[in-house]
Amino acid sequence: MSAELKVLDPVINTKDIKVLIIEDEAQITRLIELELKYEGYNVITATDGLEGLNSIRESMPDLVLLDCMLPNMSGEEVCRQVRNDLMSTPIIMITAKDSIEDKVKGLDYGADDYLVKPFATEELLARIRAVLRRKPKSEAGTLQYKDLWLDQFNRLAKRSEHELELRSKEFSLLRVFMLHPEQYLTREFLFSKVWGYDFIGESNVIEVYIRYLRSKLKEKQYGKLIHTKRGEGYMLKQFDS
Length: 241
Ligand code: CA
Fold this sequence. Notes:
With 241 residues, this protein is α/β, with parallel strands linked by helices. It has two domains: 14-134, Response regulator (Rossmann fold, 3-Layer(aba) Sandwich); 142-236, Arc Repressor Mutant, subunit A, CATH 1.10.10. The protein has helices at residues 26-38, 49-59, 75-84, 100-108, 121-134, 137-141, 168-179, 187-195, 205-216, 219-222; strands spanning 18-22, 42-46, 63-67, 91-95, 113-116, 142-145, 148-151, 156-159, 162-163, 226-229, 233-236. Strand 6 and strand 7 (148-151) form a beta hairpin. Helix 2 runs parallel beside helix 3 (75-84), helix 7 (168-179) packs across helix 8 (187-195) and helix 7 (168-179) packs across helix 9 (205-216). The chain binds calcium ion. Calcium ion (CA) is lined by residues 24-25, 67, 69-70.
């Protein structure tokens, strides 16, 4: 690799970025690890799908390089579970399978990009930078919308620097809104994301929790945040006054 070819992105400070490599082939892991460390990234590794998933949950990496074919749990399943946890950690799938269906499947499970083995190091580094540019570091662990701030891992939420005392389901509900701001979300969608199973029949549970949330968001004091539209659902939006 020649020095002239190395273009470091000024917006990315690699030493603050933790990359998790989930790969069962030690040689490939070693190779990627060396290259990333050379670029200054902070690197951690896992050798199977389950260990990888646990590492994502516990170590909160800023980016994951995820092999598809892994022991214990496939890369696709790891990706699906991470997104199911509502974690927006950037994921680049690394696959030996280069059929269109496999690529589409990876993206369907919520991967941000994919790379087909064998790949050139420069391409891997460029894709990492591109994904990190699209998803800024702060997005991996904390979410922000206007005066709302939410720390997904420590389960803290604030509005205008005022800490919100949210119960577990209220926190999850707010998190879903913050992952999809300024769009109407149906009761069914909110229910499946927060309660984890499909909405069954008529229930006012969503209405009740929205009411709790509105009160805890102190809408009267700081302004309206959750809007309701008949037939469309609920939307998190703050109109600038
Ligand atoms: Ca593999």
